[in-house]
Design goal:
There is one protein chain. This protein is α+β, with helices and mostly antiparallel strands and 147 residues long. Strands 1-2-3 form a three-stranded antiparallel beta sheet. It has helices at 5-12, 60-73, 78-81, 86-92, 101-122; strands spanning 25-30, 37-45, 48-57. The protein is built from five helices and three strands; from the N terminus they run H-E-E-E-H-H-H-H. Residues 141-147 have low confidence and may be disordered. A hairpin with a 6-residue loop joins strand 1 (25-30) and strand 2 (37-45). Bound molecules: FE2/S2 (inorganic) cluster. Residues 31, 34, 36, 58-59, 61-62, 102-103, 106 line the site of FE2/S2 (inorganic) cluster. The site of FE2/S2 (inorganic) cluster (FES) has 10 residues, from helix 2 and helix 5.
Length: 147
C-alpha cells in the first residue's frame, strides 16, 4: 500500500474544503514543476487561528496534506502555527511516499503564505516567518495580458 490509511481518509474526505469570506489572511502557493496550486484561508482573532479552509487544485497528496494542515492549525496561536512544518503534517498523516514529500512542503508554504498575508494586512511582523518562495498571491492581481 503506497499511502497510509490517514492519507487516503483525508484525500477521500478532506476536512475544511472551501473559503472564508472575511478571512484575516489568504495564501496562494504553487509548485511550478507539478503545476499544483493551494489556497489557504485563515480566520485569526485575538492571536488565535479560529478557522482555516482551503482550496487545492492538485494531486491526492496535496489534498490530504492541505486537509491535515488546516486541521492542525485550527485553535493554534500564531507562534504555534509556525511549528506546523511539512514534517509535522506528514507525521500526522503517518507518512508520505518520498516522491510526494513536496506536496507536504506546499501545504506548509500555503499556511505560511496566509500568515504572511495576515501580517502584511495588519502591519505586524511575525517572528520567524519568511515569505514563502512559492507564494503566487500577487500574480492573482496581474492582468492576463501581462503574462
Ligand atoms: Fe505536486 Fe502533489 S504532485 S503537490
Amino acid at each position: 500500500m503506497m499511502y497510509s490509511e490517514k492519507v487516503m481518509d483525508h484525500f477521500m474526505n478532506p476536512r475544511n474544503v472551501g473559503e472564508i469570506e472575511d478571512a484575516s489572511g489568504v495564501g496562494t502557493v504553487g509548485n511550478a514543476k507539478c503545476g499544483d496550486i493551494m489556497k489557504v484561508y485563515l480566520k485569526i482573532e485575538d492571536g488565535i487561528v479560529k478557522d482555516a479552509k482551503f482550496k487545492t487544485f492538485g494531486c491526492g497528496a496535496a489534498v490530504a496534506t492541505s486537509s491535515m494542515a488546516t486541521e492542525l492549525i485550527k485553535g493554534k496561536t500564531i507562534e504555534e502555527s509556525l511549528k506546523i512544518t511539512n514534517k509535522a503534517v506528514m507525521e500526522a498523516l503517518d507518512g508520505l511516499p518520498p516522491i510526494k514529500v513536496h506536496c507536504s512542503c506546499l501545504a506548509e508554504e500555503a499556511l505560511h503564505a496566509a500568515l504572511w498575508d495576515y501580517a502584511e494586512k495588519n502591519g505586524i511582523v511575525i517572528e520567524g516567518l519568511k515569505k514563502p518562495v512559492n507564494d503566487i498571491s500577487e500574480h492573482d492581481e496581474v492582468p492576463a495580458e501581462d503574462y
